[in-house]
Design goal:
Blueprint lengths: L12 H20 L12 H22 L8 H6 L9 H26 L10 H33 L1
Helix pairs in contact: 1-2, 1-4, 2-4, 2-5, 4-5
């Protein structure tokens, strides 16, 4: 008998979509603040922050896209216990990369536009937007690494 997965929710597409919506709402709230977080006096650190934040959000979006669709029978229990995917097809990786980069670019520009209305913030910064896109480009390799990790964990639990 195969042991139950340790974190079955990680295999649910709904989990990753909910997490991405939470990421987007967090971005919106942070963009509404005068200056979120502590002041860090390192040149261009804000660009690194943008890239990392968008890499994480993009990876979550890619994981939502890359996980297999819900099985046709068995309801919620089947989805939660559905095994980690086999290695994903190259076409689905390319499609996910396109989705993540285009979404990252659109959300990044929306974020810059939104910041332009926030007192004490300068919005419409093209370099911030480019950092957002850079982070989005890093998202798919990050998501594939997470998938490999989950697959190894699943195989280790079987042994």
């Amino acid at each position: 008998m195969t042991p139950a997965p340790r974190f079955p929710i990680l295999r649910s597409r709904g989990f990753w979509l909910t997490l991405w919506i939470g990421w987007f709402l967090t971005l919106f709230v942070l963009s509404s603040m005068r200056h979120p977080g502590p002041e860090i006096h390192v040149r261009h650190i804000d660009k690194v922050e943008h890239a990392v934040f968008f890499a994480l959000g993009g990876a979550v979006l890619a994981l939502w896209q890359l996980f297999p669709r819900k099985p046709h029978s068995g309801g919620v229990a089947a989805v939660i216990s559905y095994p980690a995917p086999e290695p994903v097809r190259q076409a689905s990786v390319g499609g996910s990369a396109l989705l993540v980069v285009l979404t990252g670019a659109a959300v990044g520009w929306f974020d810059e536009w939104h910041q332009s209305f926030t007192p004490g913030r300068s919005g419409l910064d093209v370099y911030d937007w480019m950092a957002d896109i850079t982070g989005s480009l890093l998202a798919v390799p990050l998501a594939l690494g997470i998938l490999r990790f989950l697959k190894r964990r699943q195989q280790a639990n079987r042994d």
